[in-house]
Amino acid sequence: MTSLDSVLDKDGVRLTVEDAVATVTLTNPDKRNAQSPALWRALAQAGRSLPGDVRVVVLRGEGKSFSAGLDRQAFTPEGFDGEPSFLDLARGSDAELDAVIAEYQEAFTWWRRSDIVTIAAVQGHAIGAGFQLALACDLRVVAQDVQFAMRETSLGLVPDLTGTHPLFSLVGYARALEICATGRFVHAEEAERTGLANLVVPGDELDSAVGDLAAALVAAPRDAVIETKALLQGVSGRSYEEQRTAERAAQARRLRDLAGIGD
Question: For the residues of the chain, what is the DSSP string, one character each?
């Protein structure tokens, strides 16, 4: 057993690694882990810093809330120190604005890499960008006090941090539209019933439940998990017959690997 190793700790993000499990922690509980461009860059760096033997990544937030979403300071004329305000960004060209948003999205994209399985441990508020960060993960284990909400439309904006695709995939078009357009709260019971949450537990059991899930994922052979995740990720872009073909090809690779036979 290796010791807990701190890999990164900056701008409200801490990455630690123990054996095959990494933990990314949002570390600004006094502001309910509100998000900023600096935090997004740190999250993207955490993804790039993962050791190659990591198989499971747990995402959690310190304090009573997972993440209350975007820090409203972004909408003030002064913005954040050393950062252009969102009002300044809006004055740029379409290409410039697109490039900036694409950079922000990098904090949300690596969680679905095929070589890892990611788990969001969510308690309290997961609002806006916080909701989208939880949706970026493969799995969500939530406390009974969880409150998901997509508040971007209430601010005259749209969800743009990669959350619309997984939300639609999990709950369908009609419910996804209603959740986004109204900005209402989704509580634990509805989250579990609609597939937003894989598991709901009492708040004081959240860490242990996530630990048990991570251990179960690590116990399975790595290559089989990677192939299975890739198969499932590709379902929406394939017909039934194409998925059958993909299953056969994946299984052939696994059988050859188990038999010690190269391609």
Answer: -PPPEEEEEETTEEEEEETTEEEEEE--GGGTT-B-HHHHHHHHHHHHT--TT--EEEEEESSS-SB--B-GGGGSSS-STTS--HHHHHTS-HHHHHHHHHHHHHHHHGGG-TT-EEEEEE-SEEETHHHHHHHHSSEEEEETT-EEE--GGGGT----SS-HHHHHHHH-HHHHHHHHHH---EEHHHHHHHTS-SEEE-GGGHHHHHHHHHHHHHHS-HHHHHHHHHHHHTGGGS-HHHHHHHHHHHHHHHHHHHHT---
Question: What is the rounded distance in angstroms from the CA atom of residue 112 to the CA atom of residue 49?
Answer: 15
Return the SS3 of 18.
strand
pLDDT tens, position by position, 99-128: 999 999 999 999 999 999 999 999 999 999
Kindly report the pTM of this predicted structure. Answer: 0.93
- β-bridge partners, 21: 18, 56
* Tokens coding 12: 């409200």
Radius of gyration of the chain (CA): 19
The three-point CA angle 250-211-55 to 5° equals 35
Distances in Å between the Cα of 98 and the Cα atoms of 94, 122, 237 are 6, 30, 25
pLDDT tens digit string along 173-202? 999 999 999 999 999 999 999 999 999 999
